[in-house]
């Protein structure tokens, strides 16, 4: 219910707020929020600290662009192809990791290793990816609007609604997933995967399912994010990007599907609200991360929920 | 060709001991406090800048500056331990994220103070040996000798003294160790501070070999974690072997394979080890 209200509030927001600056920040927050919500499926719900998320995000951004320029597909078809590629890659990486029963730190390290390999390929495959310089995206995707037919997806307002809808769909899919029997399998794996195994849960299958779904959400975000930003660079696949996603989830809260969006909002908006140099911004970012973990281990949502419950009693 | 290979072997071994000294800190911290301190790379960077500042800015002789840099880095490690890491003991994810936050703070501060322009102090002990047609800078040999001595001393301290027995006892069974009179809080803080001191030493020596910039820690901590895992976390001599193995693989690998993928060899190696020998190469040999 609260989610519907929040979605409605955001949908009506552009009627009141006309500032392009604020709407742009919100678009980025929505897209990064999508990324964080998908990641939380793997991290918060299934308990696996995956570092492959930035790779899924970045690979898909490049793949969407490449299929558009080399095969002449539309943006949306390109995004489907990119998602299929990420699906295949995450099935391979996930199968390797989970077949060999890598857990916790070792799982994080191996997924990080695959992610770094992907980044090195992107960085050095100059002919295709343009190396460190990245790619400037001139084109904008087309979108069908009722009454207007196919139009170019341009301007902050249109992107605002597209990203809001994409985020809402992501949240709905994840909500359905974690409230189903599959979600209970995820929780069993997070709490004690050996016990889950003895209870007849196919631990391998559900770990892989969470990993693949989370990465596909990242893949969809990757295409949208790149074309909104108007450029792609190897930094999309960096460790820093993976860690930024983890930070959003922790700051927002792991315990609720939509909570990571709060983290995405804060971490995207805060550096722009206060005008700081890049160095000071890095310090503020680090300090927020440290303080959140030490003072609010449940994240903003978890802390607020706890306060609300206390007041009700 | 032969000379090239020998040269790369040598270079790999030198860089590898640097990986090894950080990896030793990673291994010790993980064994005793249950977290992976990624900020050790940032402490190494701090050590670099302190050595540079004390030599170039204050005008101390380089050896004194190294001691000073290690002292300052350890002090910073003590502050970090008491204000941050004390609260994340045995919590892998929180410890990881706190150390990452600390990296952002330290790197940001370093960029503010020293800017991103690389600093250089390769002049402290110039001169080379010529060994069978190979050029070996004297400073590099000295650095390797010093780092090896420190790693061996740590090994000796852990296997021959009561501190080492207390540490092993704690690693095996924390409660029992505490009941036997091991001061566990002191031991944990001591290990965190010692590992930052090691990183500071690595950094202070690194500063005399290569030019330094505020982001150099990131590469080294990744390599150190790789080295620690290669050897099997918890093994002291293993972290040295792991570091050298990684350094040599990279060095020799870049002769035969494209140099752009230099950082990938270690990763491929790492994944293979974790899949087929998850306890590490030197498992069972503490």
List keywords for this structure.
heterodimer; A: 313 residues; mainly alpha; ABC transporter involved in vitamin B12 uptake, BtuC; two-stranded antiparallel ribbon; 13 helices; 4% strand; globular; B: 286 residues; two-stranded antiparallel sheet; 3% strand
Kindly summarize this structure in a few lines.
The complex is a heterodimer of chains A (313) and B (286). Chain A has helices at 2-16, 20-45, 53-71, 75-99, 104-124, 126-129, 155-178, 181-198, 203-229, 239-252, 259-273, 278-295, 299-312, and strands at 135-136, 142-145, 149-152, 231-232.
Structure description:
- The complex is a heterodimer of chains A (313) and B (286).
- Chain A is mainly alpha-helical.
- Chain A has helices at residues 2-16, 20-45, 53-71, 75-99, 104-124, 126-129, 155-178, 181-198, 203-229, 239-252, 259-273, 278-295, 299-312; strands at residues 135-136, 142-145, 149-152, 231-232.
- Chain A has one domain: ABC transporter involved in vitamin B12 uptake, BtuC (Orthogonal Bundle).
- Chain A contains 13 helices and four strands.
- Chain A has a two-stranded antiparallel sheet. In chain A, strands 2-3 form a two-stranded antiparallel sheet.
- Chain B is built from eleven helices and two strands.
- In chain B, β1 (128-131) and β2 form a beta hairpin.
Note the topology.
The complex is a heterodimer of chains A (313) and B (286).
Chain A: H1 2-16, H2 20-45, H3 53-71, H4 75-99, H5 104-124, H6 126-129, E1 135-136, E2 142-145, E3 149-152, H7 155-178, H8 181-198, H9 203-229, E4 231-232, H10 239-252, H11 259-273, H12 278-295, H13 299-312
Helix pairs in contact in A: 1-7, 2-7, 2-9, 2-10, 2-11, 3-4, 3-5, 3-9, 4-9, 8-9, 10-11, 10-13, 11-13
Chain B: H1 2-33, H2 40-58, H3 62-83, H4 92-114, E1 128-131, E2 134-137, H5 138-160, H6 162-172, H7 174-179, H8 184-206, H9 216-231, H10 236-256, H11 262-276
Antiparallel strand pairs in B: 1-2
Helix pairs in contact in B: 1-5, 1-8, 1-9, 1-10, 2-3, 2-4, 2-8, 2-9, 3-8, 5-6, 9-10, 9-11, 10-11
